[in-house]
Amino acid sequence: MALAKRLVQPFERCIHKIQKNRYRRYYVSQAKRNFKALPEKKYLTKEQKHEIRAFYKELTGERVPLIWHQYFYSRTGVYAKEYLPTSLYRMQLMDKANMDPYRDAYVDKNMIDVYLPMARHPHAFLKRINGYFYIDNEPVSLQDAAERLHNLEGAIIKPSLASHGIGVRKLTVKDGVTNIDHMTLPQLFNEYGNNFVIQEFVHQHERLAALNPSSVNTIRILTYRSDMEVIPLYAVIRIGREGKEVDNESSGGISTKINSDGTLGKYAFSDAKDGRFEKTDSGIVLEGYQIPYFDKAVETVKRCHYQLPFFNLIGWDVSISPEGEPIIIEWNIHTELSQSAYGPAFGKNTERIINELWGRENTHDPYW
């Protein structure tokens, strides 16, 4: 057995090295395509290239690709050596920070009220977890679920294990028939599969709704836990486009920086093919616009982070109720970074976080 293990391990390391290089090439080529699509381009100077390489060489011992720094510099007009290359973030830092094997069970949207009972969440009318139905966290049959939701208004349905706004739709039910392609509830349940949630539609504070009335415009806060301290790294607000029901950038939404005092930055950004926005589709000028109760949202996610000890780096999606209470909509540990909207994701904590994480085992893949 020991001999077989000694023979197999070098082969496995070789395979993983090939996979690692393949993923690195994928992320680099993706960044190059995004850079090529930009209408205006800025190029790094020789001095800037040297500064970036020296900075990351000292922290990681590795030579990082420069394409992300060039991309963010071009988009924002602001140079910073601390921009995180996506390959470094996704392939190493993310999985050093978080226990990836526990991800799916914890980030299941059906479990957020179970793990974080101290915070406010959208009320779930119905959960389906691994094919089982629950109402108020009590098991029910398919027949009971259909009967209890026979008439329903003000709801949304969404997959509980998906992200990027995939499958999120408004839902009404009248006499057992839904507004979604006139399907019956059992047909809709079958359409969404074994893992989904039907929740109340979140009613947001009027100042958030004013940014785009058709979508819930969520605050994204990135937090990092270091021992007994939870550090808010950045906050942005994601704003939907006119008539859209979701605010994700992947669905055309825009994001802009939230300053520490709750005011917005000057520019918002969408995907790589769009430029910068100074106003929302509803006509609101972004710069200086005040997000209500932002300090309460930050304190809420900091308090919640302590309850998730397997994960040191978390992206939180938060809304604010009409009464000013933070509502935790969801959280994730494979969060995309909003470096166009905010700037370097780890900011002044970049050196500290990389130094703390670099010696950790990569929980997703021990050979990485």
List keywords for this structure.
single chain, alpha+beta, D-amino Acid Aminotransferase, Chain A, domain 1, about 20% strand
What does this 3D model show about the protein?
There is one protein chain. The chain is 33% helix and 22% strand. The radius of gyration is 22 Å and the shape is globular. It has eleven helices and 14 strands. It has a seven-stranded antiparallel sheet with strand order 3-2-1-7-4-5-6. It folds into three domains: 2-83, no CATH class; 101-116 and 204-356, ATP-grasp fold, B domain (D-amino Acid Aminotransferase, Chain A, domain 1, 2-Layer Sandwich), CATH 3.30.470; 124-200. With 368 residues, it is α+β, with helices and mostly antiparallel strands. The longest helix has 36 residues, at 2-37.
Tell me the domain tally.
Answer: 3
Ranges where pLDDT stays below 50 over 5 or more residues in a row are none
Q: What is the CATH class of the largest domain?
A: Alpha Beta
On the 0-100 scale, what is the average pLDDT?
91
Brief summary:
The chain contains 11 helices and 14 strands. The protein is α+β, with helices and mostly antiparallel strands and about 375 residues long.
Set out the fold topology.
Blueprint: H1 2-37, H2 46-60, H3 67-76, H4 86-97, H5 103-107, H6 112-115, E1 124-129, E2 132-135, E3 138-140, H7 142-148, E4 152-159, E5 169-174, E6 177-178, H8 185-192, E7 196-200, H9 206-209, E8 219-226, E9 229-239, E10 254-258, E11 264-269, E12 276-277, H10 294-305, E13 313-320, E14 326-332, H11 350-358
Antiparallel strand pairs: 1-2, 1-7, 2-3, 4-5, 4-7, 5-6, 8-9, 8-13, 9-10, 10-11, 11-12, 13-14
